[in-house]
Design goal:
With 245 residues, the chain is α+β, with helices and mostly antiparallel strands. The chain has helices spanning 18-28, 66-76, 102-111, 125-133, 138-146, 149-157, 212-217, 219-228; strands at residues 8-9, 34-38, 57-63, 98-99, 175-183, 186-190, 198-202, 237-243. Strand 5 and strand 6 (186-190) form a beta hairpin.
Length: 245
């Protein structure tokens, strides 16, 4: 299917900071018992101490460097179109067909998978979106989200929120929103512009998405890839979903 025919533009993308994403999550119907927190360091335990554990999701916006771009293209080159759907699908993944909604779709990936699902309010827009998405294939799921008025209204409600004006291009410095979640004892990388959900490795019961091994398989893999190819230091923004402290 030609997804370019489906693209619907939203004027601005949601900013990747905890206040904005907490507002969006609450608007859609996530319990206030969960919230997003700034991640100030990937290496210094003291700078992660404010985040209750386990962390359920990591939402990152990261520039699309030449090295990462080449890696993505090589990884996706031989993949068939994603066919997952139904209650046995390990994670719910959305193909992005809505312009500038990468942050909002990243939030959906964060809260619709893993233990966060237990914090979705019954009869909420979020619960309805998840229920509708589960039986649908990739194409119909994308169309469902594209046509969802509650999702569009929730996204628009936070467009002007945050510390700075959102980038009207929706792709700050070529940035991409990537979600890392733990589901089924696996670490998953979820991004709407890829060919499908990406399984990055196994995690034990006591390892969450901020565990050193999870970080090595996730965001640090991208950082290392860029460093090994001689790229500049990456400037990225990272927030984590966890219980309210």
């Amino acid at each position: 299917m030609d997804y370019s025919s489906l693209i619907k533009n939203s004027s601005q993308m949601a900013e990747n900071n905890p206040d904005v994403m907490n507002q969006l999550a609450e608007k859609l119907g996530l319990s206030s018992d969960l919230q997003f927190y700034d991640v100030y360091s990937l290496d210094v335990p003291e700078l992660l101490a404010h985040i209750p554990r386990p962390a359920l999701a990591l939402l990152v916006i990261i520039p699309l460097t030449p090295a990462w771009d080449r890696s993505r293209k090589a990884e996706d080159a031989d993949k068939e179109p994603y066919t997952g759907s139904g209650p046995d699908e390990p994670v719910i993944w959305f193909k992005q067909t809505i312009g500038h909604a990468c942050g909002s779709i990243g939030l959906l990936h964060s809260v619709m998978n893993g233990p966060a699902v237990d914090f979705i309010k019954r009869d909420s827009d979020l619960a309805a979106l998840r229920s509708l998405a589960i039986p649908l294939d990739m194409t119909k799921r994308a169309e469902m989200l594209y046509n969802s008025e509650p999702f569009e209204l929730a996204h628009k409600s936070v467009e002007q929120a945050g510390d700075s004006a959102a980038d009207p291009t929706g792709e700050r410095e070529g940035g991409h929103f990537v979600t890392f979640v733990k589901s089924g004892e696996k670490l998953w990388e979820l991004e709407g512009s890829r060919m499908g959900p990406l399984e990055r490795g196994s995690l034990s019961d006591d390892e969450d998405v901020l565990n050193p091994r999870a970080l090595d398989m996730g965001i640090k893999r991208i950082i290392k890839l860029n460093m090994e190819r001689g790229g500049e230091d990456l400037r990225f923004s990272c927030i984590a979903l966890a219980r309210r402290s």
